[in-house]
Amino acid sequence: MMRKPRCGVPDVEYGTFKTRRRRYSVFGSKWSKTHLTYYLQHGKDLPRSTQSQVIEHALQYWSKVSPLTFSRVGHPSQADLKMSFGPRTHYGTSGENTCRYPFDGEGGVLAHAFAPPDGRLHFDEEETFTDLSEEGTNLLYVAVHEIGHNLGLRHSNVRDAVIYPAYLGYKPDLKLHSDDIAGIQSLYGRDKDLGKSYDAHNSTERHQASTERIVRIVFVWIIIVVGLVGNSFIVAVLKSFPRMRTTINYLLVNVAAADITTLLFTAMHLIPIQGPFPNGALGSFLCKFVYTNNITMVTLLVTTLTLTLVAVERYHALVKPLITSRRVNTDNIAYIIVGIWAVAIAMVLPLFVSVDHRPNSNSFCSPGDKMDEMKVYVYCLMALLTLIPFLAIAFCYFRIISGLYFENTICSRGQGPSTPQELGEKKRLVVLLMVLTSVFFVAFVPYGVALILQFSGMANSSNEKRVIFGRFKTAVQYLTLLNCSTNPFIYAIPSTNYRCCFSNNNDDDNDNSNDNDNYNDNSNDNGNDNDNSDNNDDDNDNSNDNDNDNDNSNDNDNDNNNSNDNDNDNDNSNNNDNSHDNNDDDNEDEINNENVDNNQ
């Protein structure tokens, strides 16, 4: 998680910030009176009148939910709250507003304040403070936050609270969280009339904000449900229908499993965390597995390796069919899939080890003092996840496309020219796999860019860039979710076999469904016979006599034209040398599909 602009209070005067059982926390001191005076020394960014209005408005946030009242005075010696803008080193000379805690420049500590009875509040003049704008740093947000410290509140660990330690950007509907209100009222009590007035005044804003959040959460969960149903269907088909258990389908199921995991964990990260961030083992678990994207990194790496393996396997099946020792088959596919997950976990393991719950850090979940090492690691990881797989996949599909469309070197299993039907099926499969891979990289490359920007510090250079980066990162996360949800529709819905499995229409008489099946061409990758073709009924024995084109033929000798052993008097089946013209209609499409299987 990137370093966020934040308040410097916990690290300045009051020790480290520790999460407590209750969400808000107090310094243990408060003002002994309810009417406080304040003095403002103006800064340089906004007109003086605007600065005065913003500070007055910020004070009203607290006066509306408590018995506190405020009035402005003309000299700091007369003020309880002394507010000023200062440079990086702002010691001062008068003694009224001196400070021994320097700022760290733009984008770091925005301001710091001192608890009662001190009352000093210092804004970093190197920040670009703005009003009613997403550019720069919103002065109202920072002022409300720091005044809370002046009144005796420590940081809250509720992310939506104004007193939360990190600056989260401009909020047009800025309001006190219930946790902020509970904190200030624990110190000064509650003025019932003012409290009710505040609640009524902000009810419309709270409703609008909650509506926006509900819409976002509903959208996320629609993506989740669609993705889980679609990917679960792919897994269920492979489990329920043995004829679908080919090497390509096993690899696509591995992609589906990775997508299911990505959907669950990425969605949990997108949904805002309500309530306090827990300490101890639970906080560490949330940082390592939920609040950061470590799990998503594992699943994206699994998908990348799997799609790379699919491209390499297709390359060997179509371009190098005689080199069977390098082929993936049903005997070794399980070991390969386990190996893919093991490699992915091992590559992301440094993130799991370094990222932890650090309440004293600028962000609750961070690598701590290992940030520089993590930068180098992330750059290398992104290279492995994008550049190398992309080059390997591009090479494999370039050779395949060249052989299919230009050189015409993709032959049948018998090393003769492929039939138009065989070429068509091979082309459809290659195009589909290329689309699947391209869609993944379109979704994943922006994710890698966002991760690099996060660790490089570019997102922290200015508030404007920080806001843009935050929106970009959120859009990338939604894009990742959409990719995981649409994958099943890309490679399953176009398949007749998947649709037939979905409708439970898998009877032997529906063999024509295999004509458009683009995924079973790996069923004989290891040179084994296709059991489906050997178990045909007696009426389909003609399919076993397709000399030179079908390896499962029982009469490979071209001279065996006089065989008359076929059941049900199918004598014409012996004259099918070098052709498939006389196959029984009920099995013709299955034979054509099996020829493609054996040729690959």
From TrEMBL:
Composition skew (Acidic residues), residue ranges: 531-558, 583-592
A GO cellular-component term linked to this record: plasma membrane
GO terms assigned for molecular function: G protein-coupled receptor activity; metalloendopeptidase activity; zinc ion binding
InterPro entries: GPCR_Rhodpsn, GPCR_Rhodpsn_7TM, M10A_MMP, MetalloPept_cat_dom_sf, Pept_M10_metallopeptidase, Pept_M10A, Pept_M10A_Zn_BS, Peptidase_Metallo
Keywords for this protein: Calcium, G-protein coupled receptor, Hydrolase, Membrane, Metal-binding, Metalloprotease, Protease, Receptor, Signal, Transducer, Transmembrane, Transmembrane helix, Zinc, Zymogen
Binding site for Ca(2+) 1: D45, E127
Subcellular location per the Swiss-Prot or TrEMBL entry: Membrane
One Pfam family recorded for the sequence: Peptidase_M10
Cofactor(s) in the UniProt record: Ca(2+); Zn(2+)
PANTHER family tied to this protein: LEUCOKININ RECEPTOR, LEUCOKININ RECEPTOR-RELATED
Protein name (record): Stromelysin-1
Organism listed in the record: Stylophora pistillata
Gene that this polypeptide is encoded by: MMP3
